[in-house]
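Appendix C: a fully annotated inverse folding record. The material below is reproduced so that readers can follow the format used throughout the book. The structure is listed first as tokens, followed by the designed sequence.
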């Protein structure tokens, strides 16, 4: 029997219960005290795992002094044992280091190849997209052409353009003179709002919520791709629709039709749970939806740097316009002449609906997370991803008029119908910001600790309905 560390015949042989290797007792005890592992296999090893082996023992004489040859030989033996143990450890560490270095070099070489391939694909995609963008802009702004948006030679139908103008003229005449209804919630009542009901979790990673015109039905969806139909009065889900197109990124109602956008780039329209149409215009995730005041022009924006308009009467694509950054938020102006799209570059881009021309841009400090026009058509509010403030611009002068500091990140914003309340939702809770026309000052009548990713106003602002990332729908109102 030879010691696995020193390679010599052990004077006090012991064996490891785990590996079965034979060692000199003093050497293995020193190694365990220092490393706590088997020197051969690297397994965890303790003194209790060592078994004494029976063998003929040589009775060693008493240790002489260093003045004799036997004492010197004993000292040399001890030094040799220590040197053998150290050499064995160094050889193990050298082998392990060589293996780690070889693995790191291989991974570095593979990473360089992957990065080079991805950069080439990125450059090719940018080149192709720039050509598409230039073609779209040149088509839209070419002289002696009509003022319709162009895509593949097709423009907005004349009847839609006439309807847009008609809606704009009719709404402009009455919008700013509209008075607040008597039944509308007051600041005092909003101050008393608290959570009056909460649902069970409906889906994970929910980021959108939409209420129908009655305020009694809500739709939401998450990463499982299932659209949940929720009854506010019953506080329970009454239906579920499998979109079969990836995770749901946004949703809205158009009459009794439910419309969703998905991570696969598909926009789907459902009526009473039955699919009516499916649009595949985006090469990538479709991030947000918006409905025109005409109620039959639907807009979607995507990470492919484009926004698309659809006709909900014929269920066909009307036009698709490309810009210079991925888009993540969308909203139509209440009068229907402007379309706002928020980009990953922090720009809020305003486009003319009929021509596709870029009217103006506003800047926020980060990728745009949410957009909302006030109902009077004067203000546009925007929230940036990860930011704790909301920026408000006056569209009449194209200037920033207010920056509301909320104190926590904001994921969603929503003006009420009167344009005096602005609701915000985020992981830290829901707030309501109030603008007083009399004093021209802002106040915060409500701050709730209910976490939310999206929020909507209930009927007559009598409640707030929110959804959390876990799919819990909560109603805030007066008890």
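Designed amino acids, in order:
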């Amino acid at each position: 029997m030879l010691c696995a560390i020193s390679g010599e015949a052990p004077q006090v042989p012991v064996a490891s219960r785990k590996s079965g290797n034979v060692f000199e007792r003093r050497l293995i005890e020193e190694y365990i005290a220092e490393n706590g592992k088997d020197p051969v296999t690297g397994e965890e090893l303790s003194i209790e795992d060592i078994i004494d082996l029976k063998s003929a023992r040589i009775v060693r004489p008493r240790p002489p002094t260093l003045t004799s040859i036997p004492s010197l030989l004993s000292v040399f033996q001890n030094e040799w044992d220590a040197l053998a143990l150290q050499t064995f450890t160094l050889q193990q560490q050298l082998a392990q280091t060589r293996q780690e270095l070889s693995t790191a070099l291989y991974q570095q070489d593979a990473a360089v190849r992957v990065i080079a391939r991805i950069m080439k694909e990125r450059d090719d995609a940018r080149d192709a997209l720039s050509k598409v963008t230039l073609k779209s802009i040149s088509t839209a702004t070419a002289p002696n052409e009509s003022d319709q948006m162009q895509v593949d030679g097709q423009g907005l139908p004349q009847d839609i353009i006439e309807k847009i103008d008609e809606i704009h003229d009719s709404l402009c005449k009455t919008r700013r003179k509209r008075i607040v209804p008597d039944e509308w919630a007051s600041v005092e009542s909003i101050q008393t709002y608290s959570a009056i009901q909460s649902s069970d979790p409906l889906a994970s990673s929910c980021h959108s919520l939409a209420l129908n015109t009655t305020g009694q039905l809500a739709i939401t969806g998450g990463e499982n791709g299932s659209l949940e139909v929720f009854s506010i009065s019953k506080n329970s889900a009454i239906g579920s629709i499998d979109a079969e197109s990836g995770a749901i990124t946004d949703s809205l109602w158009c009459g009794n039709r439910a419309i969703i956008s998905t991570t696969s780039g598909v926009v789907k329209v459902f009526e009473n749970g039955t699919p009516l149409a499916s649009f595949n215009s985006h090469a990538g995730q479709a991030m947000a939806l918006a409905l025109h005041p005409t109620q039959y022009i639907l807009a979607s924006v995507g990470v492919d740097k484009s926004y698309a308009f659809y006709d909900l009467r014929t269920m066909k694509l009307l036009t698709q316009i490309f810009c210079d950054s991925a888009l993540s938020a969308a909203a139509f102006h209440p009068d229907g002449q402007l379309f706002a799209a928020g980009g990953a570059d922090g720009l809020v881009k305003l486009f003319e609906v009929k021509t596709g021309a870029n009217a103006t841009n506003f800047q926020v400090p980060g990728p745009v997370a949410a957009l909302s026009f006030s109902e009077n058509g004067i203000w546009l509010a925007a929230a940036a991803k990860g930011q704790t403030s909301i920026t408000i611009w006056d569209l009449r002068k194209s200037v920033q008029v207010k920056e509301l500091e909320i104190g926590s990140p904001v994921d969603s914003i929503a003006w009420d119908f009167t344009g005096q309340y602005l609701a915000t939702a985020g992981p830290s809770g829901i707030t309501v910001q109030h603008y007083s026309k009399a004093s021209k000052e802002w106040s915060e009548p409500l701050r709730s600790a209910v976490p939310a990713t999206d929020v909507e106003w209930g009927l007559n602002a009598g409640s707030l309905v929110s959804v959390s990332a876990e799919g819990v729908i909560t109603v805030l109102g007066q008890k």
